[in-house]
Amino acid sequence: MAATFAEDQYGRKVDRCLSDTLLKFGGGMILGSVFSLVFFKRRAWPIIMGSGFGVGVAYNNCERSLNSAK
């Protein structure tokens, strides 16, 4: 059996956090763009708000993942 080092586990968690952040940021931006085009007469604030919500959710998930005992 190959032993996994703590650094490798931490690196995998950070990689997972970065990919999660990119996905949630992109999803929030896309959703904000759709709302901006359909409901808010092409204003910028829905895009910014959707992206911010995506980054906030990703940050919360990363914090929980990195602070876990496993």
Explain how this protein is built.
With 70 residues, the chain is mostly helical. It has a domain at 41-69. 79% of the residues lie in helices and 0% in strands. It is built from two helices and no strands. The protein has helices spanning 6-38, 45-66. α1 runs antiparallel to α2. The protein is elongated, with a radius of gyration of 16 Å.
What is the compact description of this entry?
The chain has 70 residues and is mainly α. The chain has two helices and no strands.
Please give a handful of descriptors for the protein shown.
elongated; single chain; 0% strand; mainly alpha
**Beta-sheet strand percentage?**
under 5%
Largest sheet: none
Give the number of DSSP strands: 0
Structural class: mainly alpha
> Residue ranges: pLDDT <50 for 5 or more in a row?
none
Taking Cα atoms only, what radius of gyration do you get, to the nearest Å?
A: 16 Å
Instruction: Output the helix-strand order.
Output: HH
Helical content band: over 70%
Counting H and I runs of at least 4 residues, what is the number of helices? 2
Distance between the termini: 19 Å
Family: Belongs to the MICOS complex subunit Mic10 family.
Subunit structure: Component of the mitochondrial contact site and cristae organizing system (MICOS) complex.
Keywords: Membrane, Mitochondrion, Mitochondrion inner membrane, Transmembrane, Transmembrane helix
Main location: mitochondrion
Give the helix/strand layout.
Blueprint (H helix, E strand, L loop, with lengths): L5 H33 L6 H22 L4
